[in-house]
Amino acid sequence: MWSSFFRKKSIDKIISDQLEIEKLEGGQMHRNLGVRDLTFMGVAAIIGASIFSAIGQASANGGPAVSMLFVFTAMACMFTAFCYARFAATVPISGSAYTYAYTSLGEIVAWILGWNLLLEYAISNVAVAISWSKYFVDLMEGLGVHVPEFLTMDYLSAKRAFNEASPLLQSGQTLESLHVNLREGYLAYQSAPTFLGWHFVANLPALLITVAITYLVYIGIKESKNTNNILVILKLLVIAIVIGVGAFYVQVENWTPFAPNGISGVLKSVAAVCFAYIGFDSISTTAEECKNPQRDIPKAMMWALIICTVLYVLVTLVLTGIVPSQQLTGIEDPLAFMFMKVNLPGVAGVVAASAVIALTSALLVYQLGQPRIWMTMSRDGLLPKAFSRIHPKYRTPSFSTIMTGVLVGVPALFANLEEVINLSSIGTLFAFVLVCAGVLILDLDPENQKKSKFKIPYLNASIWVGVAWIVALYLSLPDSASWTTWLGSYLDGDAKADHWIMTGFFVIWLVLAFFSYTHRLSLIPVLGLLVNLYLMTQMGATNWERFAYWCLAGVMIYFGYSYRKSKLN
């Protein structure tokens, strides 16, 4: 019975099943996407909420050095992108990382990964919808249209702001003297209509944009592609304006010190920076709608990562060069704030308008990805048949698209932005870790290597992984005077859980070093696995706890439904 949990679908079986599905009437989707379209989808997904909102708090935490964190994270994504490209060129199916895990790691791992992809796409879209709402409301205010505060944010943020602002106002401070977030939250909670003592505070614009995007995704891939391409072109033009104009106002002395809060301050922004790269893997979910997925998906992934990393680094350096990093704390619209700082309100207005465009395109791509993963899981029997239903006219996964809209739109009404960013980031990194591990396992069979049109450059990892482990362990150990305190931290203190998480990372690294030596593993997938796993360790114990509960819920659903209904059963 234990072995049945790890049953796998062979590559030949997956491809033959796909050919059978496409022969059925209504089973085939329209193939409209080329390299340019896929690259634009990657850019749309990557450059979204982060460059217009999360980049501000990340810069406040780490200073100009956050630009290097973007580079480091991009390297991790690049290693992972090689692995995604390897799988996409071997298994050109819409299931993305879920399908890849099914061929290499087994069914239960594939299910858990698919369950976490729900975390990546659906919850990421909640975050994007919330950010879109913020910029849209600001844009309406600039045009003279006021949206009531209680319809523009979540209940939790409003209540926290009300509880924090009330004693300050009672002490004699004025409402205008409060931070803008406190002021808006206080007004939202105070002015909200009440039902049975409960204040109705909900983010209505976030719901409405989700409904609109879901409709666009529902009616066809061609319409979605054309809309996205236009939005991305506009987005890139505005970012070029931000960098070009902002460069003339940079004060180099603001880059000193480069890391004002040290390495810990930089690493504090790991969740936000990882969130910035969420979505590059969404390209692989459209494999069944690509003209040549085995050739085009690998190219598009690489181009999207390179373009976006260059833009993130340049924007971060311009932002921290104009505004000292400590002044960016709590600023939700840092790019608009940056131009207001140098008395360029016109450019700030353009940034606010472009943010609405940028976030719309990101929302569009995320809403495309999730239904196609559910469709593939349904075809395997792990989800009900309705999820694999293809619309007879539009050739899109109709029921899955509607369900995605519901699961994004309803939480977007009430969710808190910071919480969903952290939870989404750890789920995404987990998916990246498993994709890298899947390539290592898949390539142990030489026959599998022959079936791929994309080859990861082979560098022998046998010695380097072990040497790097020894060096890293030596650098992380305390000096002789601190051994007692260091050992005691495993049993007591606020960082106890973090110490155990890091110890687990070093144990996994040691095991990987052993297998790298005995099986002469490829270095790039090993590096991808280790870097993504390290970034997971920096997410904090609270996020790990929530992530564990989420995985546990997924396992319960698997044994309650998916295991029995699986077509491999």
Q: If you had to describe this structure to a student in words, what would you say it looks like?
A:
The protein has 569 residues and is mainly α. Helix content is 70%, strand content 1%. The protein has 24 helices and 2 strands. Strands 1-2 form a two-stranded antiparallel sheet. Strand 1 and strand 2 form a beta hairpin. The chain starts with a helix and ends with a helix.
Topology overview:
Layout (H helix, E strand, L loop, with lengths): L1 H4 L5 H13 L11 H12 L2 H14 L3 H25 L6 H8 L2 H36 L12 H16 L9 H12 L2 E2 L2 E2 L4 H15 L2 H26 L15 H6 L2 H8 L15 H30 L11 H8 L3 H35 L18 H17 L2 H26 L3 H5 L13 H13 L6 H6 L7 H24 L3 H15 L3 H25 L4
Antiparallel strand pairs: 1-2
Major β-sheet profile: 2 strands, antiparallel
Helix count from the secondary structure assignment: 24
Q: Kindly give the count of domains.
A: 2
By CATH's scheme, which homologous superfamily of the largest domain applies? Amino acid/polyamine transporter I
The unreliable regions are: none
Q: What class would the helix/strand composition place it in?
A: mainly alpha
What is the beta-strand fraction?
A: under 5%
Helix content: over 70%
Read across the widest sheet, the strand sequence of neighbours is 1-2
Mean pLDDT: 81
Element-by-element helix/strand order:
HHHHHHHHHEEHHHHHHHHHHHHHHH
Give the CA-based shape. Answer: globular
The CATH topology of the largest domain is: Amino acid/polyamine transporter I
* CATH class category of the largest domain: Mainly Alpha
Number of strands: 2
- What is the straight-line distance between the termini? 11 Å
Gyration radius (Cα, Å) is 24 Å
- What would CATH call the architecture of the largest domain? Up-down Bundle
